[in-house]
């Protein structure tokens, strides 16, 4: 089979690999029909994710068809169309029983990280009963690919961790795919104002189209000053860090209102400073989280009922044979106006 392999820092390559086989009775083999590239895949390519070693097949998102199911897989059978969760869950360990699937003792974020992932023609899914979801009839599969990771990440790590409530004022620092996923799902909770921050004018235009109340470009104004002006000097009740850089984390601290929540969503590859000398008396909360995908069933219902349209995040489409070109496009997202890239088998 063809598979996209992480070779070394900044280098990926489409290679010929053996089709995976069942290693446990709880496994399933899925033939991919659609996948995508995540910002985390780019972090791996930069060398920011030490657990992912060269030689690994990348990818943790996708939709496909069950090719083979182990004897203990009771929820699915050969031929079923399934959504692959980016998080693998045994559903029974102490972390899973607390809803912390990302810390599953035998799973978590392993696809495209510590085991071979979904940017291939076939993938082995451990703990298939609790790591796959049936594709509802009549639902656009392209949209469902966005439910493998990006929509649950935006909702759980951003909106829910940020404690967005009706009337909240929000700032989302970073208008990339994850920041826009936060924007889309935050509107389910009726905040009064959502301010998007980014240096990419195209992404700010998209954010406005998707429902942002205001946009701020740090290349043209001082972002902290601009956001304080937009909030009558108070700052924001909820601030989402969706980039993963020390400078953006610092900005988030500056624009947080007393009693506010700073929810970190970005993947940080280096240390970031925490200014407790400014924050210690402000009654603020800072949260971190790796997506658990506990919200996937809810999101499936919202997409099925057409309350959400994740497909609007897709800007580019490539055949799987063109996936190296797709990576080049995603790495230069600002130049190409790229958000999510759909890879079709």
From TrEMBL:
Keywords: Metal-binding, Oxidoreductase, Zinc. SMART domains: PKS_ER (SM00829). Residues 39-343 form the Enoyl reductase (ER) domain. Its cofactor is Zn(2+). One of its GO terms (molecular function) is oxidoreductase activity. PROSITE patterns: ADH_ZINC. The keyword Metal-binding applies. The keyword Nucleus does not apply. Gene3D superfamilies: Medium-chain alcohol dehydrogenases, catalytic domain, NAD(P)-binding Rossmann-like Domain. Belongs to the zinc-containing alcohol dehydrogenase family. This is GroES-like protein. It comes from Coniochaeta hoffmannii.
């Amino acid at each position: 089979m063809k598979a996209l392999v992480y070779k070394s820092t900044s280098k990926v390559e489409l290679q010929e690999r053996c089709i995976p086989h069942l290693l446990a009775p709880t496994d399933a083999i899925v033939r991919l029909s659609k996948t995508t590239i995540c910002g985390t895949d780019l972090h791996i390519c930069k060398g920011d994710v030490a657990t992912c070693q060269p030689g690994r097949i990348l990818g943790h998102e996708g939709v496909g068809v069950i090719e083979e199911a182990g004897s203990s897989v009771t929820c699915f059978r050969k031929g079923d169309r399934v959504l692959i969760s980016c998080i693998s869950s045994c559903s029974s360990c102490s972390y899973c029983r607390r809803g912390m699937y990302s810390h599953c003792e035998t799973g978590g974020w392993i696809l495209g990280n510590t085991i071979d992932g979904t940017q291939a023609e076939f993938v082995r899914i451990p703990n298939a009963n609790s790591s796959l979801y049936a594709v509802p009839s009549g639902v656009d599969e392209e949209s469902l690919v966005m439910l493998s990771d990006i929509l649950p990440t935006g909702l759980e790590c951003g909106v829910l961790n940020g404690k967005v409530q009706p009337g909240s004022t929000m700032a989302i620092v970073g208008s990339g795919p994850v920041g826009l996923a936060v924007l889309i799902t935050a509107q389910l909770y009726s905040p009064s104002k959502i301010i998007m921050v980014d240096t990419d004018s195209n992404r700010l235009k998209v954010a406005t189209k998707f429902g942002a109340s205001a946009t701020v470009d740090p290349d043209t104004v001082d972002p902290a000053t601009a956001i304080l002006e937009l909030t009558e000097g108070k700052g924001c009740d909820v601030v989402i860090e969706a980039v993963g850089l020390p400078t953006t984390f610092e900005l988030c601290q500056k624009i947080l209102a007393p009693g506010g929540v700073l929810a970190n969503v970005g993947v940080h590859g280096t240390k970031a400073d925490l200014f407790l000398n400014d924050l210690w008396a402000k009654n603020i909360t800072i949260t971190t989280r790796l997506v658990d995908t506990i919200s996937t069933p809810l999101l499936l219902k919202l997409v099925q009922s057409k309350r959400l349209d994740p497909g609007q995040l897709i800007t580019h489409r490539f055949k799987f044979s063109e996936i190296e070109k797709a990576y080049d496009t995603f790495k230069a997202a600002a130049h190409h106006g790229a958000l999510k890239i759909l890879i079709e088998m």
